[in-house]
Amino acid sequence: MQEATHWLTILRLVGAGLGVSIAPECVRTIASPDVVCLTLRDTKVFSSIELASLVGESRTIVERFAHIVKALNAE
Question: Which one of 5, 19, 52, 57 is at 20 to 30 Å from 31 when CA atoms are compared?
Fold first, then answer.
């Protein structure tokens, strides 16, 4: 068993035949041709995405984006 924290490293380990991994869909775009990515069907897995910004952020674009995210999250 190998452990890694970066997806490129994980994909290289898989490509070298040192294991398998369950990864988010976006990892497929960086997988090398020697790695097979299969879609898991009928799964009930959810992932949280967080919004982070600097304390005291005052740029209008950041404030508006945060407002949109908060509104969508309230639905």
Answer: 52
